[in-house]
Q: What sequence folds into this?
């Protein structure tokens, strides 16, 4: 019986091609926009979380936030000894630490003048970053210890400064701690980011280079009042928060400050906040898109009511030939469900294909979750059945005598 | 059970709210299995009301209607649907074939509701269409056929579930005289093969094909006469022998 009804429903839809298509269009647009918006939301979430992962999810930056009037003291600087002490105290829990130092200035090469940002990095910094060394090498422990004037630069920086990505062995001069120094390029790194990710990260005009973190210890020549730390990679959520708290507590005691004198920017916590926010936005947008699905459903109900009136005689005839109320109900219900299901399927195909094409053009892989697709299919079937019930009941309850008399 | 139809003190009152209209007033009637009967009367005579009740499309207000030995007066709508499906073959004035469906599919409809398998249905429908002389047109749609041909399809459809009763409502009302003759000869042939056929008509020449003529007036059975000399049927009517 269901198979028969399906065949009849498809025959009825084929008989009124244009009308069926226009009715489906509401569902196509509804389902399509739900899928597209949820996919955009999920893709943005992935982009943002990948940006955070580039930074390292267990990374925290500690800044001073001195409460008393005396302000900044000389003893607040983080010296080489401080760093060594913290390493010893926290052991394996503290996977990485430096003084979060950087310096930027103009570098003149044959290619012209470029603003270069030098960032301090310890030899194991590369373990926490997603960039790849494409030629040369990263810093060795002795580079750090002996404060060698060496730099690892981004491939795009190399291109701007030297006109080639293959710039290992080249040198450039930049002012550091008051004196002009010559740095030897010992390695080139590549950060793999899509244009869309770049858009989210903002457009930074300066080019990036890493130099040994030992240049940025607090001493007579330079100040260092901030720390960059990475907790053990396995730390997450509460465990990470507890570690950060312990760290600040110890730091404050060590520097003869109060715990409140420092504040900590915790990448992991920020990431989960942003992710939660984006998730909420995504659900809200999907909900708004679902309203168009409602409109599509009303379209189905409308056309089914027209169809029931048009086919009054058919209903009367079928009843005279032995169709029960349930038979007629099923027939019309299946017809509206079929409209909705076909519309939903087309909507999913169009939205997925469209998103994939846009993603390919932007070189950004698109996230289309199977759960979202299944939900959309289910929802469109529910819409078809829900909005089909009233017209189908109307058809099923009609009096066969009146239907047969209908002109 | 010799009688296919027994009506006992059958009354139908239409309640239109303000006034009550007496559609049928105490009808007592029986029709034997294998009879060929005409129901005549002018409009408003009650013949359509009687047809609706005989066809189980409507229920009597009072009295009993035994169809094939079963009282159908108090059945629910869905029970009546099943009775119509199994026991009654309808032929309508305006054919009431379903457009957008082939002739073959149309004949299959009653068998679909009888839950017959697809292969059996198709075979039976094709056989029936062959019997009414439309074997070559089973894949045509109704609007590609003449009125007479459409009514033949409707007759094939009426026979689909081998019902004990064929009910025809003005079956020649929309046909020219040539087609009318063909259709009435087809009914006569069905009767010869053992079917019970009841034809509602207001035309005397149509009623003359039958063997018993019931005339209604103002909701009452006015006369019930045996037609001694039914219109003879030519032998070239294409209907093979049917088991009934």
A:
């Amino acid at each position: 019986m269901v198979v028969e009804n399906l065949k009849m429903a498809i025959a009825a839809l084929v008989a009124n091609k244009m009308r069926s298509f226009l009715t489906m269009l509401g569902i196509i647009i509804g389902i399509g926009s739900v899928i597209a918006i949820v996919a955009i939301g999920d893709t943005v979430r992935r982009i943002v979380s990948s940006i955070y992962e580039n930074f390292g999810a267990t990374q925290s930056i500690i800044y001073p936030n001195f409460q008393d009037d005396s302000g900044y003291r000389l003893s607040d600087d983080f010296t080489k000894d401080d760093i060594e002490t913290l390493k010893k105290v926290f052991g394996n829990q503290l996977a990485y630490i430096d003084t979060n130092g950087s310096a930027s200035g103009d570098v003149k090469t044959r290619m012209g003048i470029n603003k270069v940002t030098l960032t301090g990095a310890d030899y194991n910094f590369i373990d926490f970053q997603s960039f790849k060394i494409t030629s040369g090498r990263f810093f060795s422990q002795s580079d750090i210890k002996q404060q060698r004037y060496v730099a690892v630069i981004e491939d795009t920086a190399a291109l701007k400064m030297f006109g080639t990505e293959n710039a290992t062995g080249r040198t450039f001069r930049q002012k550091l701690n008051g004196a002009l120094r010559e740095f030897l390029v010992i390695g080139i790194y590549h950060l793999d980011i899509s244009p869309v990710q770049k858009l989210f990260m903002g457009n930074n005009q300066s080019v990036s280079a890493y130099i040994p973190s030992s240049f940025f210890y607090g001493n007579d020549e330079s100040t260092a009042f901030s720390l960059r730390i990475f907790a053990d990679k396995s730390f997450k959520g509460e465990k990470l928060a507890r570690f950060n708290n312990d760290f600040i507590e110890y730091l404050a005691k060590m520097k003869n400050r109060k715990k409140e004198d420092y504040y900590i920017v915790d990448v992991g916590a920020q990431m989960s906040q942003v992710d939660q926010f984006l998730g909420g936005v995504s659900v809200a947008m999907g909900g708004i898109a679902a309203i168009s699905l409602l409109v599509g459903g009303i379209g189905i109900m409308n056309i089914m009511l027209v169809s029931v009136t048009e086919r009054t005689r058919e209903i009367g005839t079928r009843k005279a030939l032995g169709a029960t109320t349930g038979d007629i109900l099923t027939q019309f219900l299946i017809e509206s469900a079929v409209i909705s299901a076909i519309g939903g399927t087309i909507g999913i195909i169009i939205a997925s294909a469209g998103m994939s094409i846009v993603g390919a053009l932007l070189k950004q892989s698109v996230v289309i979750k199977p759960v979202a697709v299944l939900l959309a299919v289910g929802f469109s079937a529910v819409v078809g059945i829900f909005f089909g019930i009233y017209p189908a009941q109307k058809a099923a309850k009609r009096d066969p005598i009146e239907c047969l008399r209908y002109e | 059970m010799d009688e296919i139809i027994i009506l006992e003190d059958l009354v139908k009152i239409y309640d239109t709210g303000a006034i009550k209209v007496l559609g049928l007033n105490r009808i007592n009637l029986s029709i034997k299995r294998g009879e060929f009967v005409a129901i005549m009367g002018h409009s408003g005579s009650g013949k359509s009301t009687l047809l609706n009740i005989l066809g189980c499309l409507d229920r009597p207000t009072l009295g009993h209607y035994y169809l094939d030995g079963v009282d159908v007066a108090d059945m629910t709508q869905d029970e009546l649907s099943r009775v119509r499906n199994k026991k009654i073959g309808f032929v309508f004035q305006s054919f009431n074939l379903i457009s957008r469906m082939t002739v073959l599919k149309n004949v299959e409809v009653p068998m679909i509701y009888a839950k017959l398998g697809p292969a059996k249905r198709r075979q039976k429908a094709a056989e029936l269409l062959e019997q009414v002389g439309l074997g070559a047109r089973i894949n045509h749609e109704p609007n590609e056929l003449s009125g007479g041909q459409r009514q033949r399809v409707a007759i094939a459809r009426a026979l689909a579930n081998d019902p004990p009763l064929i009910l025809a409502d003005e079956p020649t009302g929309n046909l020219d005289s040539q087609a009318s003759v063909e259709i009435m000869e087809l009914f006569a042939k069905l009767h010869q093969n053992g079917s019970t056929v009841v034809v509602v008509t207001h035309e005397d020449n149509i009623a003359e094909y039958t063997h018993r003529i019931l005339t209604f007036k103002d909701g009452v059975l006015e006369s019930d006469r045996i037609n001694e000399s039914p219109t003879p049927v030519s032998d070239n009517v294409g209907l093979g022998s049917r088991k009934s």
